[in-house]
Amino acid sequence: MPDKESPTADQHEPTLFEWAGGLPALTRMTRLFYSKHVPEDPLIGPLFANMSPDHPERVAAWLGEVFGGPKNYTEQYGGYTRMVSQHLGKGLTEAQRARWVSLLCRSADEAGLPADAEFRAAFVSYLEWGSRLALENSQPGARPPMHMPVPRWWWVCDAKPGSRISALAPAADAAHAVAVPGANEAVTFTRHIKPLFRKMDRDSMSFVFDLWSHSDVRTHAPEILKRLENGTMPCDGAWPREKVDLFRRWIDSGTVEG
Ligand code: HEM
After folding, report:
1. How far apart are CA 236 and CA 197, in angstroms?
2. SS3 state at 81
3. pLDDT value of residue 255
4. Cys-Cys crosslink for 74: which of 51, 79, 81, 211, Cβ 3.0 to 4.6 Å?
5. DSSP, residue by residue, 189-227
């Protein structure tokens, strides 16, 4: 499982399956759901009274596949067609659907699935989407397409682990010391300026320019300096004066690449 503090360190974007904790975590969740919450719930309990003994493992396998894990449900249990056929004719109600989702979310908490905002946004968005399809497919006369691929879910709107600064993260300054060059030393982009910009800074500005590119930073240097001086960049806190001075010194000495 990836390091939850710095998932982007090796540029690998974890799948939802990996972030959830893989099949063991999903199975822990579905077992809790079907053995503890479902049987004692008057609204949805009766729906599962005759479920197959391995139903929790089947649903975990489905979710694992949807969340980017191995295609176990397709290979072992019959894939999309089997899943859809299981909801046909059940005549589910909106109240049952909503209860199914809320109890599964409670099971996710109890099973210790990650509770970070990014994971839960993606997790719940799939449960909402999938459960509404199950509801629709279960209605009398419904004719769902029978041979579709298993959906593959992803993070929501680029809200991935590490894509934002946590309000509980250590202060930016403490995490990022500056190597100030000596008075007679040339200030260069490669050695002194580029390291001032964190990956986070680079990602958040990537829609306009690349903060790790010498030519981009040179081109936009006056605007960047202005934002650094008035403290509106980076968005999680103004740079200390020594960093802003260093950036200005680099501009004044000719924006050398180095
Ligand atoms: C994202 C939403 C959902 C997913 C991923 C899901 C997943 C599945 C899967 C994979 C199966 C087939 C398992 C097998 O291979 O036998 C299944 C069956 C079933 N599902 Fe769902 N389901 C969802 C929503 C719902 C909802 C909202 C309800 C009812 C409130 C529901 C009720 C059932 C029932 C009654 C069965 C048949 C159980 C049995 O008798 O074996 N499902 N579901």
Report:
1. 13
2. helix
3. 96
4. 79
5. IIIIIGGGS-HHHHHHHTTT--TT-HHHHHHTHHHHHHH
Tokens of 219: 């081109």
| Ligand 1 in reach of 48 Cβ (< 6 A) | yes
Residue of 234, 152, 247 lying closest to 194 (CA atoms)? 247
Residue-wise pLDDT for 105-154, tens only, equals: 999 999 999 999 999 999 999 999 999 999 999 999 999 998 899 999 99
Q: Is 17 exposed, middle or buried (0-12, 13-18, 19+ CB in 10 A)?
A: buried
Which of 62, 86, 100 has the most ligand 1 atoms within 8 A of CB, as the residue to mutate?
86
pTM: predicted TM-score of the whole model, two decimal places: 0.76
Nearest-CA residue for ligand 1 atom 1 is 130
Give the dihedral of Cα atoms 80, 83, 85, 86; nearest 10 deg: 180
* Cα–ligand 1 centroid distance for 118 (angstroms): 25
Tokens 């249990």 map to which residue? Answer: 77
Three-state secondary-structure class, residue 159: strand
